[in-house]
C-alpha cells in the first residue's frame, strides 16, 4: 500500500467517529434556514453540503485544507529548480489534509505514472467524433467511455462492496482516472488543432511537466500547468461542477460517471466556459481597436455596450465571493513576473481598473470584482495556446483533482443519496400568505 493510501485510511477511521457523533448527538441542530428567494434563486447561501477539501470565504477566497493559495504554493514540495509544486503532492494534501514530504509526493508521482496508460479505444473513439465537436464534449465522452475500467462498479456488481470498504474502490478509480487526464487533454488538443500529431508522455516527468510536453509547449509552460491545475482544483462544494460530481456519486455511480457529469456542468458559460468567453470578448475589443490596447474611455464604452445589450461581463462577479478572487491575483502575479509588457495582459489590467466601478454603477452584480477566469486565458494565449475553445478542458483537468478527492471522502463517510425536497408554486404562495 502507498503512504498516501495508508495515511488516508487512518484519517478516514478517525474522521468517521466525528461524523457519527455529529449525527447521533447533534443531528437536530439547525445550521441554515431557507427563504422563498433562496428556493427560487438557486439555493444561494443555503448551508446544506459538507466538504473538508476546501472552504470558500466570501472575503478571503479559497483555502485548500485550511491553506491559502500562497501557503499551498510555498509549502508543497516542488520539482528541482521549479517555483510551482507537484500536482501529485497537492492531491496528497487534498485527500489527507497533510502537506507531504518530497518523498511522499514522489511516491504519488510514481504511482500515477503506473496508472497513466490511456486505453487505445479512447483515442479511437475521439478520432471517430466529428472534428468540430467542442473539446469539452470530447473530454466528457473520453471520461465516460472508460467507465468499463471502474473497479468500484465491478466490486459492486460482484457483491464485494460494503459501506466500510467502498472508499477503497473509489480511491482506485480516482487515481486511475486522474493519472490519464493530462494525456487525454493533450490528445484532444493536438487532434483538433495540430493535425493529430501526438507527442508521447515522458515517464520521468510529473503531471504538470508531462502535460506541457504532450501539448508541445516548451518550459516554463510546465510551471503554468502546475499552477493552473492547482488553482482550478476546488472551490468548495456548491459550485456546479463540484456539486454535480457529488450528486451523481451519491447514487453510487462510479468516478467515471460522476466526473463526466461534473465536466458537463463545467462546460456552461456561467461556470468554466467563462474563461473562453473572456478571451472571445477581449479579442473582439482588440479587433475593433485595430489590435492595439484601447484607451480607458473606449474600454468603458465597450463594457457599457456589453451590459446594455443584456450580456454579462465574463470573468467578473461570483455567486459566493465578494472581493477579487485570489486565483485571479495568483495568475496576475505570474503575468507580472513573466509577461508584464504583453498587450493582452495590459488590456486585462486596464479592465480591472474600469469594470468594477461600472458594475457598481450598473447596480446588479453583487460582486463587481474579477474571478479566476478574467486572467487565465491571457497566460495561455501568451504561450501560443490561442484556441480558446480548449481552455475549459484545462480547467476540467484541474477541477477533477478536487471533485474526485471529495467523492472519495463521500464514500468513506457513507454519505447517502442526495435528495432535497421540492415544493410547488402554490405551496410557496401559501407559505407567503401565512408569513
Ligand atoms: N456582468 C453583468 N451582470 C452580472 C455579472 C456580470 N459579470 N455578474 C452578475 N450579474 C448580474 C446577474 O446576471 C444578475 O442579473 P439579473 O438579476 O438580471 O438576473 C444580477 O447581477 C445578480 O447576480 P449575482 O447574484 O451577483 O450573481 P449570481 O450568483 O447569480 O451569478 C455568476 C454568479 C458568476 C454566474 C455571474 O456573476 C456571472 O454571470 N458572471 C460572468 C460569468 C463568469 O465570469 N463566470 C465564471 C464564474 C467563475 C467560476 O466558475 O468559478
UniProtKB/TrEMBL annotation:
Pathway the protein takes part in: Carbohydrate metabolism; tricarboxylic acid cycle
GO terms, biological process: carbohydrate metabolic process; tricarboxylic acid cycle
Transmembrane intervals: none
EC number(s) recorded for this UniProt protein: 2.3.3.16
Signal peptide positions on this chain: none
Class in the EC hierarchy, top level: transferase
Keywords: Transferase
Family named by the database record: Belongs to the citrate synthase family.
PANTHER family in the cross-refs: CITRATE SYNTHASE (PTHR11739), CITRATE SYNTHASE, PEROXISOMAL (PTHR11739:SF4)
Name this polypeptide is given: citrate synthase (unknown stereospecificity)
Organism, scientific name: Tepidibacillus fermentans
Highest classification ranks of the organism: Bacteria, Bacillati, Bacillota, Bacilli, Bacillales
